[in-house]
Design brief:
By secondary structure, the protein is mostly helical. The protein is built from nine helices and no strands.
Length: about 180
Amino acid sequence: MSADISPVIAATAQWLLRSYPVTGGALDTALAQAQARQAVTVAAWLRYPTTADAALVALVGPGGAARLDWLTGADASGPDAPEEAWRSWVDEVVASWAACLLTTPGLAGDAVAALADGEHVTGVSPDFRRLTHPDERDRRAAALLRHPDLLAPVADLHRDALVRHLDGDRLDADRA
C-alpha cells in the first residue's frame, strides 16, 4: 500500500487510550494499547479500503478530535487547550467504528473477516486476536476501553454505517 494512513491510526488509537485510560501498570498499558491499535487499524482499513482512499485522507486529513472531545466531555478546544498536533489526525468515523469493534465481539469478527480480500492485507497475515479473541488479562487491562456503556456515545455515532458496510453496502461519504 503506497498511501500511509499510519498517522490516522496512531492518533485515533491515542485518542481512545486517553479518553478511556488504563488503570493498571505497564503490562496493562501495553495490552490496552495493542487492543486499541488493532481495533483502530481494522476500522481504518475498512474505512479507507483502497490506496486511493488512503491517499485522499492522507492529503486532506481526517477532521480531528474536536467533536469526539465534546461528546465525551473532554473538550480540548478553547484558549486553554493544549497544542497537540496529533489531535488533528484523529478520525471520528474510525474512532466510532473502533469503539464498536471493541465493545461488540461479533462485529469485530465480521470486520476482520471483511478485510480478507482487501488491499491492506495483500501479502501479509495480520493478527488481530487481541481484538477478536481477548483473554481475561486483555479484558481486565482494557476494562474502560471495552466497556459498552462508556463507549456507547462514540460507538453510536457511526455504528449504522459500519453495519451497512459489513453487510456489503459501499461507503458513501455523506452517510458515514
